[in-house]
């Protein structure tokens, strides 16, 4: 990984780009977001990783999903029905392929090949309940799930007998689980997380009726450590449940795990949200270790992000003693299950098992290296082309000025927040794809610039009237 | 459906069978469940639809999942690795087929054929966020999702402009969503549900820090209406969030939706848990209608149960005005999303769309008819063979005495609770399968009886000593 050393800690953007013109979610009410939508119909401001909100306004006029109605087979003869269905599926596959080819914005590794597993779709594989104890339903994949969990236990340095975890439906489920385990361990605890934290953490706080403190951030996107210390000191009478971001959603910033809380270990619980970068950081030289040798309570990562999978999935891991505490002391689990969901997708563990077995730790290390190198290349290409950028040292998320042509944003499926956009360089982003992307971006910016320049001339002509 | 009319309202079992010897979850602490485990290692008492709990005891000795470790590819050459992987997958497929062939206990329709959709596994399809508003991530299946939701809207009689809903990961997610929407609508509301309710409802109450009342049940498994009335009257000062079971987990009992609450409509919220039977009841003659024309707040059903799907999934539907209330008034959604999960499986909507398009309402009606007819047949066969049974009029869940050979229970993957077991007759349960099942059950019972009878003789011989 020596060749990616030139990465700088935080290559700062000029501040206007880092301070979005749009109010962030803590200050923007649902209503104001909608007003904004209504005010600028041509350019909906989509939040990263999220659709627009359903809000008070009954009329949402942008990006409404068209329905593909269920056909009523009674109206058609059998052959016609088959033909209609096949046409729908074939057209859809074509669309999927096109969109997969032009995807840059979300941290999903779209480069996977699970061909040998296709036959498994014939089976209803369901790991309902606890992964470690088989239920009577036999069509499950728990043995793969446990294998994958043990692989993670080795990665995160926790003994096989000391951990508990499961394969989730997505990063959000892992976060909901981690925060719940924290709350049950410290029922009176206050939830702390930075303002650039994924929305699911504060959603958990509201669902669970917890007091939550939103802490400010540094320019890099890391939590403001001094501000956090201030809150912790002021609330010293109550325990702390602290969310640590291992790569924030927008800027890929990594909160420093090794700061002192000033609390004794029985009075804080640290949840690590490592949705994307939690899978990458163990393979990054010089990165802080995410390990259960530190006093953390739980880690959540996604499986469909860096690993890549047809379905969203993830892993959450905690210490066995917390789960025991949950089931005996508070019994939210009804003494029967320790997962958020009841039925659980049994295909996801097989995808993970398959990828890890094929790639191994070494293959993943190479993927990480490639991503970081290509992220650095993209940043250099954009800098050279005069586009302002930012790249955190430990991240493959390249932040840059939001392109002003909405069609370009949609084509490349960029996640945007206010004035900034980002590309998350995943293993499926090749140098060739970066070439096309940068070329099209520069052309798009040129079109906007030319249009603006000509607009000046047009205005001048109108003002000059017949004089010209 | 005329030919299934002989079904009786509630064919009662003698009471010992209906009163499990094992304390139920409301009286049994996590600890007592474990003690019971330890006390009877040969016959773990598995709760229906659930694995055993993770509890205080650090040693759980039954049904521990064996791990299938991730292989480290570095240790093997490429060909050997491929061969090893293929062997694992092939063996696993064989096991899946065998288990699928001998499954009777869980309400999963294992009879589906999604062959034409197999190519879709190449794509990472993710409907992250709200189904109705497209996010920037282009590889989604929202158009299918909306088509499916509109199909359900027609089924449950709600106007397209009045509903909101989404395709969930399972019945539990739908229940977590429905109860959360109810709590946000009535923050001070008390949660009421019967003791035979699926565990996810009370789990929701604990997660959301709600006051909850567990109401007793009638022999049929329905909620005890008088007891519920009593609680509602006693707590009249606070609003009510009432869970109504459209088919309980164990007995398939349907709570009567049409009872008076005594509360004005703005002071109660009814969530209908229709995991399995919510999909069947619209097609059952003489069954009470589950419809949004009644004052209900939300409905949750599973997609992998009656419909059948490789992955667990479901649908939750509520009134649009509640969702608006949630996002504007309480903001647990962070003003951005209205679903429990963030990333959402985009394959599930396509499975449902495909099944509904192929079968139509008429095809589903025929499936329901077949299930009810075969459930009645199974009950008659068991009655004739001297096995005590129970079958609720509106259910395809045949309850009977728990078989005493654990190997039989495991082979047929029966869900058991205390002294009772059940078979949920799904469309994949054929008459031929019922024949095999009943024959093997009777043989199993005979083996147990013979063993017990011979034990008496053996004891007598020991007692008689040399006299014989």
Automatic annotation (TrEMBL), chains A, B:
<dbReference type="InterPro" id="IPR015421">
    <property type="entry name" value="PyrdxlP-dep_Trfase_major"/>
</dbReference>
<feature type="region of interest" description="Disordered">
    <location>
        <begin position="18"/>
        <end position="47"/>
    </location>
</feature>
<keyword id="KW-0663">Pyridoxal phosphate</keyword>
<dbReference type="InterPro" id="IPR051151">
    <property type="entry name" value="Group_II_Decarboxylase"/>
</dbReference>
<dbReference type="InterPro" id="IPR015422">
    <property type="entry name" value="PyrdxlP-dep_Trfase_small"/>
</dbReference>
<keyword id="KW-0210">Decarboxylase</keyword>
<dbReference type="InterPro" id="IPR002129">
    <property type="entry name" value="PyrdxlP-dep_de-COase"/>
</dbReference>
<protein>
    <recommendedName>
        <fullName>Serine decarboxylase</fullName>
    </recommendedName>
</protein>
<keyword id="KW-0456">Lyase</keyword>
<dbReference type="GO" id="GO:0030170">
    <property type="term" value="F:pyridoxal phosphate binding"/>
</dbReference>
<comment type="similarity">
    <text>Belongs to the group II decarboxylase family.</text>
</comment>
<feature type="compositionally biased region" description="Polar residues">
    <location>
        <begin position="29"/>
        <end position="38"/>
    </location>
</feature>
<feature type="modified residue" description="N6-(pyridoxal phosphate)lysine">
    <location>
        <position position="305"/>
    </location>
</feature>
<dbReference type="InterPro" id="IPR021115">
    <property type="entry name" value="Pyridoxal-P_BS"/>
</dbReference>
<dbReference type="InterPro" id="IPR015424">
    <property type="entry name" value="PyrdxlP-dep_Trfase"/>
</dbReference>
<dbReference type="GO" id="GO:0016831">
    <property type="term" value="F:carboxy-lyase activity"/>
</dbReference>
<dbReference type="GO" id="GO:0019752">
    <property type="term" value="P:carboxylic acid metabolic process"/>
</dbReference>
<dbReference type="Pfam" id="PF00282">
    <property type="entry name" value="Pyridoxal_deC"/>
</dbReference>
